[in-house]
Amino acid sequence: MAGALTAALRDAMTDDPRVVIFGEDVGPLGGVFRVTDGLAREFGDTRIWDSPLAEAGIVGTAIGMAMYGMRPVVELQFDAFSYPAFEQITSHLAKMRNRTKGHVTLPVVIRIPYAGGIGGVEHHSDSSEAYWTHTPGLTVVTPSNPADAYSMLREAIASDDPVIFLEPKSRYWVKDAVALPVRTAPMSRARVLREGADVTLMAYGPTVKTALQAAELASVEGLDIEVIDLRSLSPFDDETVGASVRKTSRAAIIHEASQFGGYGAEVAARVTEREFFHLAAPILRITGFDIPFPAPKLEEHHLPSAERVLAALDSWEW
Question: What is the pTM of this model?
Fold first, then answer.
């Protein structure tokens, strides 16, 4: 998946000289996760360069460059490192097009490696998606596989609106046979990865693998789970999710972030409002615990597992 992202950046820079990349250690080092590996040698330090360790400055600079016709792609090295840039993102990046009545567009992509699964400590394993999805004016997407990583990043860079591109760290090294370049479904659409008749299980980013594992385990017990990779967190694909829920009559969502006020709460409310009369049971949320991200030795207990998904589904009266 990391290689697919590298290829997407390389192809975007080749196709459009307005695309530039900067951020923390993205130049000669190639980024902490080596997603920009080799690009500095290919394109030089006028197209890709290392920034100071100042996230607000990174995003503020990207906003100014985009206002003057560039298409910057910036990397904020880890999920929690994005918080110093919060004011720039929510007050300016997300609002500029509305503030100028559409006259100023901001084609900025902010790449944020996020979530756990790598044994990282706090500040390195946050799931911050709910902050960004709560902000009108931002498109928020997250791939779960190499093909989507390439296709969605190319689409994000081509967008005239700002995109928060969340990259699940635990999926960087997943391997798949993909012929690049590739175009998958539009990044605004969810995808049904596994057909099922009994439950709609929604996941995104790092939890898609967990959802598929849960579906396989459940099939042994005769439970047929449909798995949806949401892909786009904002906007939300009501059409794909709604069609699935109307078929299965039961729904659950899985994410690594804590449950209280998490993204799953919005999904549950949204689906309930639209599909209430098709639901046979309350929508379930299988999530991380309501605590700061724990130390590495406790990570596997904190993150939702396939077994926790099945235990949650057992709480329904069938």
Answer: 0.97
